[in-house]
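Each lists sequence, tokenised fold; shown next:
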Amino acid sequence: MSTLDTRLPTWLPFKSTFQGAGDFLLFNIRFFKEAFKRPFEWKEFWFQCYKMGNKSLPLVLITAFIMGLVLTLQTRPSLVNFGAEALLPGMVSVSVIKEIGPVITAVICAGKIGSRIGAELGSMKVTEQIDAMEVSAINPFRYLVVTRVLAATFILPFLVIFADTISILSSWLAYNIHGDMSLTSYFTAALSKLDWIDVVPSCIKSVFFGMAIGIIGCYKGFNVEGGTASVGTAANSSVVTASLAIFFIDMITVQLTDLL
């Protein structure tokens, strides 16, 4: 057996990985091509925006409320020991708006939105509904994929804004357990510590988080193969892959922001 023959099996596990990466790249290219074609499915787009926002908002708000409460209760004793209690509102606002709010909200949406998209498109794929749409002269990619990806991209920054606001509000409630500060004074102190370099990158990466969640969920669901059991696999894979993508995008954003 030649040297090439003995080495060949070691490359076989990577074949599916490289093939999957290539398929995902082609999927992204097709998305950007279809996104600029007309007519655009505005009705489906707004319906998906409502569906994603309506289903995700309660969980996002509850998590944000607990997040601001816990962050304040854990941080306040340390600041009091150093006589820096007045810095608490600014510390919470910078931490939440710059990093914690967007990332935690995106991870929640990866589980809520990403899994729903993967399962929804996956079930349509295995029941041949997507094939039926093609026979009916409807572009299933533009109707199903483009609308969902753009809806996730559009809605996530709004969810992040709601989460940041609720986190600061719950921080004020936690602060007033031991202190006494009006809501107006607390928000003024919190927002006074923010700069554009804190807010703008947060908004930008929220857009990329939404796009990653949408396009990964659509890719996993649109390319399901097999029976109904593969639908659950697609939904689970959508959540895991989207969560990893969120942390990877966040890492890149932090590095770029640090250069500014």
In short: The chain has one domain: 42-259. The helical segments are 3-35, 42-81, 88-126, 129-135, 140-178, 183-191, 196-222, 229-259. DSSP finds eight helices and no strands in the chain. The mean pLDDT is 87.
